[in-house]
Amino acid sequence: MKRKREVEEGGRPSRPRPAQHSLDCDQALETKKMTVDAVEGINSAIGKMDSCLLADYIAQRTKKFGGDLSLVELGDMHIPESAILDTSDWNQDRLARALPSFLTHIARQNGRSTNLSVAPTTEGSPHTIVLTGAALRAAELSRVLREFQGKEATVAKLFAKHIKLKDAVEFVQKTRINIGVGTPSRIIDLLTERALNFDHLERVIIDCSFLDQKKRNIFDMRETQQPLMHLLNRPELRSHYTSIESPVRLAFY
Length: 253
Known about the structure:
With 253 residues, this protein is of the alpha/beta class. It has helices spanning 2-9, 25-29, 32-35, 51-65, 71-76, 99-109, 135-144, 165-173, 184-192, 222-232, 235-241, and strands at 36-37, 42-43, 128-131, 154-158, 177-182, 203-206, 249-252.
């Protein structure tokens, strides 16, 4: 009775019951160590995140590398959940060789152009853009997407390595492109030069599961995350996130 009275009157309080939380992006990414394929160099945790988790994930990375941004500026850079496709139902490993299958899957589910081998008639106006963090990775993805290339449809390499901006501008301006594969910085340059336009764009694929030798993806490094966010927030894209007639959707690969 004495011990019971001590607890009641001033002893150690009972431990509170832990609150129940739904899975958030931090918890999803905690599986990173378990889901990294050391041979293939991918993190399959990204593929298991739905649109809500991905929107939170982008916001957290933006805040991490945008320490000098105000709350208003961070809010202006927020990517709406409605602009992100939920591809968590696609259960294949997100390897380079599986990208054509992934594109076909999401084009059938969401998009005006279901035949990915057909390019818009306007030069320099692709229906699909694939974004990755490095030129070598962009070259690899360009090769696996050649199955969608044809006489009147070019899978374009849009990155800076060994390709001068002047030459890239001339190429894009005279070429019908169905799929453009490149880095955010070069694509920003091509938009600024008015060579590339997004008038027919339907989808942007972000190569996010791929990890470099230090196990980092495109959102884990300031030098790739910031150009990517700059591109995703350009008026050419943001105006289409909420468009009914010509929506553009983001898909994380």
